[in-house]
Structure formats: C-alpha cells, structure tokens
Amino acid sequence: MKRGHTKSCGCLVYKNSIVSNLQHGYWNTAIYQAWINMKQRCINKNNPQYKNYGGRGIKVCEAWLKFENFFEDMGKQPEGMSLDRIDNDGDYCKENCRWITQGEQMRNTRRNITITIDNVTKCLKEWCKIYKIRYGKVLYRIHHGWTPREALEITLR
Hints:
Structural class: alpha+beta
Distance between the termini: 85 Å
C-alpha cells in the first residue's frame, strides 16, 4: 500500500465480489444456489460431496464458471425442479444438463438398479410400480438368479 501498487488491505476483493454477485440480480435465488452448489461439488475439495463429483473427474464447463453463462444456457429454474446431469458420469455443461423433479432426481442415481425390458429401460422401482409388485420381493428374486422379467411377472401362490 505504501508504494501505491495495492489499493486495499483485501477488503476491496470482498466488496467487488459482492457487487459482481448483485449485478445479475439472482444472488438470493434457487437457481443461483444451484449454480453455487454445482461449482462447490466439483471444485472445492473441502466440500463433503466433492468425492462424488470433482473427485470422480466431474467438471463444470469453462463457460459455466460465470453465473450469467449458466443462466443463459439453462434459463429460469422451474418451480420444484433441480439441476440434473443426463449422463451421471458426464460434466456439467449445456448438452448434459436439464431441470427435473425431485422424484426423477432420486431415480437418476448411481445406486439405482436399472432394468431393460423390450428395449425400455427404467429403474427397478418404476418397473415394480408398473407391475404392482413389491420392490423387496423383486430385488430378492433377482439376487437369487431370476431374470428381471421373471422376477416382475411370475406370481407364486
């Protein structure tokens, strides 16, 4: 500061970041929080979810490091929807992201079991709902060697 090369003790960095966050007017919204959370999971090694995102190689595309670009690509966040990656192993980018409901989000996790019947792929819980059979029963059958179709369709008396 004495030589004139520094303009502040560091407080201007904080002040300037607040101003830039306020410029777009979305700093206190769900979409802004979704953007912050997305970046934190992929970039911040101290984030509890980092191991499942950045630690697995999931990245945020360069353009989306700026909120305005993210907003331009994704548009306003629909009520009750959350950010989702279509390919669970893919990066956060325009081509791989969409807004979906919480129910859809729960079906789109790595721990879900997906079953394909007649070229239609759904998670096991969805198939159980369609066939009106308990999930636990079908899961037990599959773990004991039944094919997914047998586990869903065969009824025992």
